[in-house]
Specification:
Distance between the termini: 41 Å
Oligomer: single chain
Strand content: 5-15%
Number of strands: 5
Radius of gyration: 36 Å
Number of helices: 11
Order of helices and strands: HHHHHHHHHEHEEHEE
Helix content: 55-70%
Length: 455
Amino acid sequence: MTLHPRPRRSGWRPGWSHLLGAPLSSVTWRSYGYLWFMLLLAPVALAYVLVTLAVTAGAAVTVVGLFVAGGLVVGGRWWGATYRRLAGDLLDTHVAAPLPRRTRTSFWPRLGGALGDPVGWRALLFMIAALPVTLLGSIVSTACLVLGLGGVTYWTWFWSLPPDLAMDSRWHNPVGLALVAVGGLALLVLWPFAQSGFVALLKLLTRVLLGPTAASLRVAELERSRAGTVDDADARLRRIERDLHDGTQARLVAVGMQLGEAREQLVSGETGTLGELLETAHASTKDALAELRELARGIHPPALDSGLGVALETLAARAPLPVTADIDPAVEAGGRLAPAIESIVYFSIAELVTNAAKHARASRVHVRVEAVADGGSGVLHIQVRDDGGGGATVVAPDGSGLRSGLAGLAERVGSVDGTFDLSSPVGGPTVVTMTLPAVRAGTTGAYRTGTGGRA
């Protein structure tokens, strides 16, 4: 993949021309406007914070008043959205909105959720922290701008000032006026840089206090991943039910009807087609048993009972194309992995091998599973590589409940805090790299089979 550098916005670049042009840059003037908008909001924001704190403290002995205080805390979300929009419009700093509030129906959880809304409190903290930065930044920026413009143009209007306001008359000569103009020009050149420090600090406060926290994003990702895992499990159960109903059950019904006909022939003494009926019933029974074995293997491969290494070797032997399985002995050196981890590894590799044969038209697949030390129990590093045509993509869910196979794999891996990476340029090769926690069976924090959650 070729990376192209993003075009830079008009701003400060090395060189005298850009240095002298910084005061005329749109970035500089939009930053200056941002400081003034922040300054205009500051008194109202400070009053809002003080009222919120006062109402919260005064209403602590009541119940109805706490709802008012909770409403003010939640109202901080609106202030946060206003500041984020202001930073996005004037500074081109786009901060993602925090996660929405959870709806609670019962009385006390609803009250506690409003009073303890972390997004609202962080917005109130931003309004307090941004006040001195905004005030000082506006003063310094405006002083540099006004004094700089005044110094550059002083020679045109100094004569109109009263004697007690004008500079010492010794400066009112060509050399003195030139020095004043140079000093004003220096202030104008330094103005954008002096202003940028305060604006950068406000940007940092906006990202830290008004955006989503890493913990909240992780919780949302885990909830989404778990929902996808539950959907996958439900879809698998429906598929098993459909296969049993349309396949195995239909064959067993046919066997029952054939045996019934054979019994009637035995009772009536007409045994002309008895052997054919029994032969057909016998063949249908064997087919039903084969289908049941396949279904059972799809739920839990029997080879996994002997360990992940044996299961992957069996999978490679039964694959529709040559598969080389390279299993690091350290994977199971510390004991069997948790059943959920083993199942995810097995089924993920099985689906990737099937995709390579069915969609990529590959002629060979190489599977590498190794254990990598990473602090506590370490991680599993799985790589599946095929020599097919490439072009595979992970199609994100579109809201219809349908996901591509690779998207389902990514969600399944993510449900146990794993990572999924796909590299599939057109023309190949396709390389899928997965990392999973090497949680051992029977240890604290082992994963439950099929749920993706910790025990």
